[in-house]
Amino acid sequence: MLRRALPAIRARIAGIWGERDAFMGARLEECRLVLASAQGDLDWRVIEGAGHWVTYEAAEQVNAALLELLAR
To answer: To 10 degrees, the CA torsion angle through 4, 9, 14, 19?
Structure first.
């Protein structure tokens, strides 16, 4: 479903993931490639040591990344 929806997105796409995400950890590169196929200059960030709740587990790092993304 995501692959079909991506071509219609006109906004900038970015991703912030926890390295140890229980759902996508082993498939992070695959996920990055899917998103990058829709937007070649995808801003993709992986927070080392964090899991699925990356915004809670690494709040300072995520907040800094979000501020960088929003400043663009």
So the answer is: -20
